[in-house]
């Protein structure tokens, strides 16, 4: 466990309701056909999170502060506007998915309506953020999320995934009819833009080691192990859904989403799945507004202390926007899928700024990006941008 560090919190943040529902819908609707997209997402997550955390480790700055420092004059104002709008819009959508997912779990085991649970969960999250004691509860919730993850992995093994179909899905790079939005959502639920800001800020606040080279190496190992663990969990969820829904031609619905855990948990599947969604949703509902506050405050050159009024105003705005979006009456699974797709569409904007910062020798010194990192990062930006552009064009033609 010594090699695990800050990146484990990032993993816990992206294994939220969005990951559970999106991977379930992907497996239930397309079987193993989109496994390649999952693997791409894992590689993209590692590449970008490693860049962001390396920046925080080397410079002692968050991603937003570093991006701001790369520009001046009108260009700086434009960049600040893009960062603020991208993270603001993205986190508002993501927050709606967090609250909806957690409420979905609670409404499944109670007679209280989903919208009421959304407001209750928002109030709890707001109270925890204001008190400053949310970290203690977050640790307990992360433990519940990983317990749920363990169950998915065991269930996948018990269900006996179709290894031949899985390998075919890994190398076929197929895009089934109507799956473009799902692919973008799979990317968006794994490579979460706000996690880039969160990871850089967490690492930047750590006590610096005398051996920076070793710290950078350890950070890379931490990121690889943590992202690998999160990707395994996502693959387990997709596999369970492929076996429970796609193989039996059963439509994934809000009422039967826990059905995939029946082989292991039997009659307790619904309760356990609901508890896991609640834990995952509340953890992410705390993290997303915080990350937005760090990003926007850094971009605006404002203080990033928890007790700062501007800092509080930012995360509270994201919280309120999430409640409003989650209360509009949109179908729960559709709302969560939309949130993940929004993240996927916003990712190229943040990734470009990150790569620009990592290529600044004055900022990064000998730890600036090399040709290999730039090639991978550029390929990720091009691929995700092409997906988003294709989806937008398909809406009109």
UniProtKB/TrEMBL annotation:
The membrane-spanning stretches of this chain are 32-52, 73-94, 114-132, 139-160, 180-204, 225-248, 268-292, 313-330, 336-359, 371-393
Asked if Manganese is a keyword of the record, the answer is: no
Q: Where in the cell is it found?
A: Membrane
Tell me if Transport is a UniProt keyword of this record. yes
Membrane topology, as annotated: Multi-pass membrane protein
InterPro entries referenced in this protein's UniProt entry, alphabetically: NRAMP_fam (IPR001046)
Q: A Pfam family matched by this chain, by name?
A: Nramp
Record key words, sorted:
Membrane, Symport, Transmembrane, Transmembrane helix, Transport
Q: What is this protein called?
A: Nramp family divalent metal transporter
Please tell me the species this chain comes from: Aliiglaciecola litoralis
């Amino acid at each position: 466990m010594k090699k695990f560090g800050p990146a484990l919190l990032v993993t816990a943040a992206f294994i939220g309701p969005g990951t559970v529902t999106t991977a379930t819908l992907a497996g239930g609707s397309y079987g193993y056909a989109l496994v390649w997209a999952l693997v791409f997402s894992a590689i993209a997550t590692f590449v970008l999170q490693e860049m962001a955390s390396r920046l925080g480790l080397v410079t002692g700055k968050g991603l937003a502060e570093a991006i701001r420092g790369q520009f001046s004059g009108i260009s700086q104002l434009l960049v600040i506007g893009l960062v603020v709008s991208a993270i603001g819009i993205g986190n508002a959508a993501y927050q709606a998915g967090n609250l909806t997912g957690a409420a979905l779990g609670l409404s499944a085991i109670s007679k209280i309506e989903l919208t009421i649970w959304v407001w209750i969960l928002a109030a709890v999250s707001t109270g925890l953020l204001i008190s400053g004691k949310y970290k203690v509860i977050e640790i307990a919730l992360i433990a519940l999320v990983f317990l749920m993850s363990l169950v998915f992995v065991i269930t996948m093994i018990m269900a006996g995934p179709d290894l031949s179909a899985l390998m075919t899905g890994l190398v076929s790079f197929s895009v089934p009819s109507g799956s473009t939005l799902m692919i973008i959502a799979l990317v968006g639920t794994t490579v979460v833009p706000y996690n880039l800001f969160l990871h850089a800020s967490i690492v930047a606040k750590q006590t610096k080691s005398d051996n920076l080279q070793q710290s950078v190496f350890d950070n890379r190992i931490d990121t690889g192990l943590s992202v690998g663990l999160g990707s395994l969990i996502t693959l387990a969820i997709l596999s369970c859904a492929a076996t429970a829904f796609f193989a039996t031609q059963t439509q994934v619905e809000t009422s039967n989403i826990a059905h995939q855990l029946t082989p292991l948990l039997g009659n307790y599947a619904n309760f356990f799945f609901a508890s896991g969604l609640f834990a995952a949703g509340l953890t992410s509902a705390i993290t997303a507004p915080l990350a937005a506050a760090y990003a926007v405050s850094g971009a605006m050159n404002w203080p990033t202390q928890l007790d700062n009024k501007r800092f509080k105003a930012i995360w509270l705005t994201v919280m309120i926007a999430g409640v409003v979006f989650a209360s509009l009456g949109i179908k729960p699974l559709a709302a969560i899928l939309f949130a993940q797709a929004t993240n996927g569409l916003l990712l190229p904007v943040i990734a470009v700024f990150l790569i620009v910062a990592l290529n600044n020798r004055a900022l990064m010194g000998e730890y600036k990006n090399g040709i290999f990192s730039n090639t991978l990062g550029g390929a990720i930006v091009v691929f995700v941008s092409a997906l988003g552009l294709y989806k937008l064009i398909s809406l009109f033609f």
